[in-house]
Design goal:
Blueprint (H helix, E strand, L loop, with lengths): L1 H41 L3 E3 L3 E19 L4 E7 L4 E8 L2 E7 L14 E9 L4 E16 L13 E17 L7 H5 L3 E3 L3 E16 L19 E19 L3 E19 L4 E20 L3 E13 L9 E16 L2 H13 L2
Antiparallel strand pairs: 1-9, 2-3, 2-4, 2-15, 3-7, 4-5, 6-7, 7-8, 8-10, 10-11, 11-12, 12-13, 13-14, 14-15
Length: 354
């Protein structure tokens, strides 16, 4: 009996010691978690470095394409320009960014897609609580994708050297969570997103333009009903948009940013041939996609980004056509210290825009 009592007492003492030790461990874990939470709370969601000047070496390629979707004959194909892959340099100061690039021959082998000429004006500005996108596309010379579609014998692509595409548009959005989410960190690398965050977007956009050629835009071999051909397409579209953007931070310096918005636009599409003209009004959903991924530290960054704007035109004669504008880019960024000489030039820029 005495032995049993002693064993019971020892077990009770051990149980008490285990309970006390576990309570101390839990208390230490709680204290450590509180310290981590305090550090997290003290870390800003994104950070700017006004004393540093972001400069970049980059590769980029822009495009404005036209997708023809004939619902009556169940055919879909895309006219794409033969734009160059450009290599260039750039710098960002506050809200101003200057990029200079050129499409060197060794980056752009000729693979039978024809020649294109273009003036592609894309401006993507990111004030603290706004997103502003401006488009001015003026292209001539297209080829048909997929390769081989309607192509003559012994040629890889169906080429339209006289095809002209013009598009002018603008999108303005309000960024609701500008205190925690930064577009500039992903797109301009003038800031660094420290913690994951997202924001809703709300705004308005409008687009207009035309697609014209000296013969039918639908190749004759793809069009069974010859009365439905057309060589001139004009469009206008406007309406409100809504979207969401989010940045995921991985291991402090790696980031993935995705943004998507949609617009229920109202407008018209006019199709014109040599003998007739038809105009249809209607609603059509548009979309705007942005994607960014890379590494971003205080001094340097490497990242890739993609911007794609799709404008779906009002349905006309069973044609659901679209005009798509985009830009691929790979950036290698280094942030230099701003010396006295550089600051003198930057003060001159500030005085111009005061």
């Amino acid at each position: 009996m005495v032995l049993i009592k002693q064993i019971s007492l020892l077990l009770s003492l051990c149980f008490c010691c285990i309970c006390i030790a576990s309570q101390k461990v839990r208390a230490q874990e709680k204290d450590a978690k509180e310290v981590i939470d305090e550090v997290e709370e003290g870390t800003p969601y994104y950070e700017t470095f006004p004393e540093l000047l972001p400069t970049r070496f980059f590769f980029s390629q822009k495009y404005t394409a036209v997708r023809i979707n004939d619902r009556a004959e169940k055919t879909t194909f895309t006219y794409f320009p033969n734009t160059t892959l450009n290599m260039g340099v750039g710098v960002t100061y506050k809200l101003f960014t200057l990029n200079l690039a050129f499409g060197f021959g060794f980056l752009n082998p000729n693979v039978g897609q024809g020649d294109s000429r273009w003036l592609d004006l894309q401006a993507h500005a990111y004030p603290k609580s706004m997103v502003i996108d401006l488009f001015g596309q003026f292209y001539q010379g297209y080829h048909l994708l997929p390769a081989g579609t309607a192509a003559p014998a012994h040629q890889s692509f169906y080429v339209r050297p006289n095809m002209v595409v013009n598009k002018i548009g603008a999108s303005v959005q309000h960024l609701f969570n500008a205190e925690k989410f930064s577009y500039r960190a992903a797109f301009l690398q003038s800031e660094i997103q420290r913690k994951s965050a997202g924001s809703f977007l709300l705004g308005f956009e409008m687009y207009g333009g035309r697609v014209v050629d000296d013969s039918s835009l639908v190749p004759s071999v793809l069009l069974q009903d010859k009365d439905r051909n057309y060589r001139n397409m004009e469009f206008m579209d406007l309406g409100p948009n809504v979207g969401y953007a989010y940045t995921l931070i991985i291991w402090q310096y790696f980031f993935i940013t995705a943004s998507a918005s949609t617009n229920l636009g109202f407008g018209y599409t006019k199709l014109e041939s040599d003998h007739r003209r038809n105009t249809q009004w209607g609603f059509s959903p548009n979309y705007f996609l942005r994607g960014f991924v890379g590494y971003n530290s205080e001094r340097w960054s490497i990242n890739t980004n993609y911007v794609h704007n799709g404008v779906r035109l009002a349905r006309n004669q069973d044609f659901n056509n679209s005009v798509m504008t985009g830009n691929y880019r790979i950036n290698f960024v280094y942030r230099f210290n701003r010396g006295p000489r550089v600051n003198r030039y930057l003060k001159k820029i500030d005085s111009i825009f005061e």
